[in-house]
Amino acid sequence: MAHRTYEEYCAAVEAEVARFVAIVGEADPAASVPTCPGWTIADLTRHHGTTYRWMTHLVRTRATERVWSRDVPLDLPEDVRAYPAWVAESAAILLETLRATDPDRPNWTIGADRHVRFFPRRVLFEAVVHTADAEIAVGRQPRVDAATAADGIEELLENLPAFGWVADRVRELDRDGETLHLHATDGDGEWMIRPGDGGFTWERGHGKGTTAVRAATGDLLLLVYGRLRPDDERLEVFGDRDLLSAWLAATGL
Q1: What is the CATH number of domain 162-251?
Q2: Per-residue pLDDT tens over the stretch 13-55
Q3: Which residue in 13, 80, 142, 233 has its CB near the most CB atoms, within 10 A?
Q4: Is the pTM of this model over 0.90?
Q5: Is 111:159 a contact under the CB 8 Å cutoff?
Q6: Where in the chain is the domain with CATH 1.20.120.450?
Q7: Mind spelling out the 3-state secondary structure of 50-103?
């Protein structure tokens, strides 16, 4: 699957942030977010904006080791009603920084790719998923186009082994020899995920799985990010549902 160019990812982030800001800007900051238990719209908005500020700091300082987001200046407004505008500003600062930086420059990242080019692709799917969170919170059904969702599924699978807390849980799955098959119904996206040997492997393609899930690509993305439950009517699940539940519990971000 061909990736977008660096600039195409930046442009996609720009568009997705505009969607997010429009939704949360009209929502009650105190409204709950069902897909993020215990969070309000204000909490979701602050979290999302913090990601932009954190990534900007990492790129501007040419970070060579982990920096925690709690140690990054946020310039957060006191009034939660100003959070949406703050997110828009935070994203604009990040995108300006990324566009002025060589994507092939080495940089510490949280993921598998330790170059600046990692950031726009990663933050695009942060934005896609948190836009879905906001849509669900205001009673809308999120829709993610198939090409974006397929890229998002693969971006997540590529980076999960680099997320230490996830890798630890995957090692404890004890589902060696079993296979989870994701099958998109609105395109040619199919993925085979095989836990085992202290981690997991994955590949594109069709095959017989211990568990199979058929759905639109966008819904498969929301499933692997825990935004759709396995019993959602938009999903068809075949085989061992316990494997799907165990995988989602282990890889939940």
Answers
A1: 3.30.1050.10
A2: 999 999 999 999 999 999 999 999 999 999 999 999 999 999 9
A3: 13
A4: yes
A5: yes
A6: 6-137
A7: HHHHHHHHHHHCCCCCCCCHHHCCCCCCCCHHHHHHHHHHHHHHHHHHHHCCCC
